[in-house]
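Subgroup meeting minutes
Present: P.N., E.W., G.H.
Scribe: E.W.

1. P.N. recapped why we're keeping a running log of single-chain structure predictions: easier to compare across weeks, and new members can see raw inputs and outputs side by side.
2. G.H. added today's entry (337 aa).
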Amino acid sequence: MTIREELERQEHRRLNPMASFADRSAGRPRYEEPREEDVRTCYQRDVDRIVHSKAFRRMMHKTQVFLRPEGDHYRTRMTHTLEVARIAGTITRALGLNEDLAEAIAMGHDLGHTPFGHAGEAALTACLGKPFRHNEQSLRVVDCLERDGRGLNLTHEVRLGILCHTGDRWPKTLEGQIVRRSDQIAYVNHDIDDAVRAGILCDEDIPKSISQVLGDTHSMRINTLVTDAVRTSREAGAVCLSPQVDKALKDLRAFMFERVYRNPVAKGEESKAKAMLARLFEYYISHPEALPEDFQPQLSFDGMERTVCDYIAGMTDNYAVDKYTEIFIPAGWHVRG
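Output recorded in log:
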């Protein structure tokens, strides 16, 4: 018996019968022969493939909410991803579900985010003339773009969890549903923390009807939401929050849209970011030869717009600014002394 097989047997001994067991995975898009020296389950292998990918490393330089903030403590896509993974891990472990599957989905869910957060998403939507959705791009990253076009060949359960972490479709696995809920818990709460750091909010601004349910501080809110998710889900046999806490979370999200996500201080530079990405898109459409060498083969089978979109979506904030400066700003104007 291999170590992998022993780990799979351990899952059946310790996990909830409703868990997603590694040895019952629906498999990968391309079959991979099991190896005798395997020491990881398929979901553990997926976590490693994602964490070692180039797209994962780029997330540390991609905007969460605040565009290029001054300060080291604002969230990025990377830190957001890690917070989601930790929240999902706590809930999954408490419910006796598969932590490895939840971790893989959490680590991969935002790989397709553009530079400059949702401003970049809006810019590419305008350029393409159809919706650009980061969850669909995340799946495209792991399926098609990583490993020079070969993709990561992740399991079916991880791929669908990544695709369905937002939008109309819900993940089929309980672990995927936990990641979707953990994403909401994480971003609403850490965005409050960043907004307080930026001077846009203070904790006292949060309506009493919300704070009385969720708590007055960042840690209290997270704790309330996580413990409620565990308790309510155990009783219901499904991933859910109690009606009172669910309403408070929805109200908090609506409050954040009103006070932060549409706040001119947080979003004042978005028009510049959108204009910058739009000009880059137009430039590469007109000059496909300027695309990096590893994107050139893609032009022949994915077409111009799709290839340029993939290139720009994969940029970090700083790289997009640097390419814009290189292409559109006269050299003497941006030389630093």
